[in-house]
Amino acid sequence: MARVLVVANETLGGRALAAKARELKDADPGLQIVICVPRTNPRFGNIIYDEAVYGAAQVRVDLARVGLREQMGIESVGEVGDPDPYTAAMDAVREWRPDRIVVSTKPATSSGWLKRDLIERIEDATGLPVDHVIVDIESEGLPYHETLVVANRTTSSPALLNRIRELSSQDSPHLFVIVVPQEGGTGKDFLAARGRLGQMLDILRREHVMVAGMVADPDPYTATMQGLQFFHADNIIISTLGAERSGWLRADLVERVRRATNCTVEHVVAEQSASSGTEVPA
After folding, report:
1. Domain that holds residue 104
2. N or C: fewer beta carbons within 10 Å in the chain?
3. Quick one: 80 and 163 in the same domain?
4. Is residue 282 part of a domain?
5. Mean of pLDDT over the chain
6. Does some domain include residue 280?
């Protein structure tokens, strides 16, 4: 039984990488795959929130493991690695002692990993066979629809959940990536956002909706743009309270995102009561 280390990040889910996994599975039915996803530092925002960066990478790990298990019958484990892909790969080699390595990158014209001679450096350092798989998601797309959902106080509102259910039934397979901005930078804010996210994921997964999620930057615009960097969304849903209660709308969030991206941006308004005099940011 062979153990193969797969080092990938933004190319996870691509057709060429999936084909390579099937090829390895056909050659060795007992194959075990170890997925290593180096963390990606965001291009947007003045402050890097480690929890958000780690969470985005962990979502990729979890989705890859589910895809391997449910679509190919391949058992896998996964870990979030160092932001430097070489360091991440070497850490994983020391931890898991694989028999071979697969490194998946974007095409040479857009791959920062290839500009750093990553494949050759891993080969030289490990002495293991290293397969290089090129994935061009920008041209090929993904084998499923992907929607980025941005919400905070309205994560469990009927309006938002029903819209997700509707889209899930129309387009299959359809992945929804839930982004929940923190309301501040404290540990309490993170825990509150994680709790809302967990409740939403639990509701949708019980209904067999393909969904994943992460707690994100406190600024909802930054959180949305980072979500678009980390994932390959076809469209965006932004969920807020009504205009009279929503700080996000007062900050013109929906229109700012529309101006900044080519994705379709849908605004879902959740009617949620709040006690008099209480400001609700989302």
Report:
1. 3-139
2. N
3. no
4. no
5. 90
6. no
Rounded CA-CA distance 159/83 in Å is 38
DSSP string, 39-60: ----SS-SS--HHHHHHHHHHH
Is residue 276 in a domain? no
The verdict on 118 and 207 lying in the same domain is no
pLDDT tens-place string over residues 86-100? 999 999 999 999 999
CA separation for the pair 114, 136 (Å, rounded): 14
Q: For residue 276, what pLDDT band results from cuts at 50, 70 and 90?
A: very low
pLDDT at residue 274 in the model: 41
Nearest of 5, 149, 182 to residue 76 by alpha carbon: 5
H-helix or E-strand spanning residue 70? helix 50-72
pLDDT tens figures, 32-59: 999 999 998 777 666 666 777 888 889 8
pLDDT digits (tens, 9 = 90+) for 121-167: 999 999 999 999 999 988 887 778 999 999 999 999 999 999 999 99
Q: Are residues 112 and 178 in the same domain?
A: no
Phi (first) and psi of residue 243, to 5 degrees:
-60, -35
Query: Using CA atoms, how far apart are residues 197 and 182, in angstroms rounded to an integer?
Result: 11
Tell me the pLDDT tens digit for each residue of 244-267.
889 999 999 999 999 999 999 999
Please indicate, yes or no, whether residues 132 and 191 belong to a single structural domain of this protein.
no
Dihedral sign from CA coordinates of 157, 161, 163, 166: negative
For the chain, the domain total comes to 2
- Enter the DSSP assignment of 185: S
Q: What is residue 190's three-state secondary structure? A: helix
Q: Are residues 20 and 133 in the same domain?
A: yes
Strand 75-81: give its sheet, edge to edge: 75-81, 32-38, 3-7, 100-105, 130-134
Residues 157, 262 within the same domain: yes
